[in-house]
């Protein structure tokens, strides 16, 4: 996840969480509560998944929330996890979406491997 900071200008924080909101890993500033971020992101992703399903939009891939000081992008990692990326006002969200794909694929591969090992 740290690679995203190098590849995309404006990325400030990242977190990986289970779909139920339990924090797996975080690289966040001290001003961010990573466990609260994980819980909120999981709740938001759950609503977005239901919305995509109810409106026939297919499998949810990502959501982006824009605020006055930047944005939060939440990406589904299979059915079991999600990645949250926070960015400042200057973050290029389109660039983030492109740069995030390999990271998401790698995380999903690691989680799938761990699940098959029974970890």
Give an account of the 3D structure:
The chain has 119 residues and is an alpha+beta fold. The relative contact order is 0.20. Helices cover 44% and strands 29% of the residues.
Give the helix proportion (percent range): 40-55%
Task: Tell me the β content.
Answer: 25-35%
How many DSSP-defined strands?
5
SSE ordering: HEEHEEEH
State the distance separating the first and last CA atoms.
21 Å
- Main beta sheet strand tally, sense and closure: 5 strands, antiparallel
**Mean pLDDT, all residues:** 92
Rg (C-alpha, Å): 14 Å
By oligomeric state, this entry counts as single chain
Number of helices: 3
pLDDT < 50 runs, ≥5 residues: none
Spatial sequence of strands, sheet with the most strands: 2-1-5-4-3
Structural class by helix and strand composition: alpha+beta
Structure summarized in a few sentences:
The chain contains three helices and five strands.
Task: List the keywords.
single chain; 119 residues; alpha+beta; five-stranded antiparallel beta sheet; globular
What's the helix and strand layout?
Elements (H helix, E strand, L loop, with lengths): L1 H6 L3 E8 L4 E5 L6 H21 L7 E6 L2 E8 L3 E7 L5 H25 L2
């Amino acid at each position: 996840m740290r690679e995203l900071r190098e590849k995309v200008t404006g990325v400030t924080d990242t977190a990986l969480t289970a779909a139920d909101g339990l924090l797996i890993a975080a690289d966040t500033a001290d001003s961010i509560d990573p466990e609260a971020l994980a819980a909120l992101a999981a709740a938001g992703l759950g609503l977005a998944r239901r919305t995509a399903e109810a409106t026939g939009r297919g499998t949810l891939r990502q959501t982006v929330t824009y605020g006055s000081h930047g944005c939060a992008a939440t990406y589904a990692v299979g059915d079991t996890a999600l990645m949250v990326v926070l960015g400042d006002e200057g973050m290029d969200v389109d660039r983030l979406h492109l740069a995030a794909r390999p990271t998401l694929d790698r995380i999903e591969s690691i989680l799938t491997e761990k699940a098959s090992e029974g970890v």
